[in-house]
Specification:
mainly alpha
Amino acid sequence: MAKEDVQKSMGVFAAVFAHTGELSKEEAKELSGLDDNAFEEAYAKAALVAKKVQAAESNKVEHFMNHLGEEINEYMDKFFL
């Protein structure tokens, strides 16, 4: 279960870069190691992160980390109780 949650988190992380054009969608999927359905879920979450980061006027890395954390919380919260 831990491996799957980490892969989903990595999928969201990598997919943000696909949304910004730094990686292709396939490259992001390959980096995540997820199957098609799980990656599509991660890709949708990443779209929300990318949209919020692109709208930020400053501190984009901080916004990236905060919004990424919001989207992957369901995968990671059990590790940091």
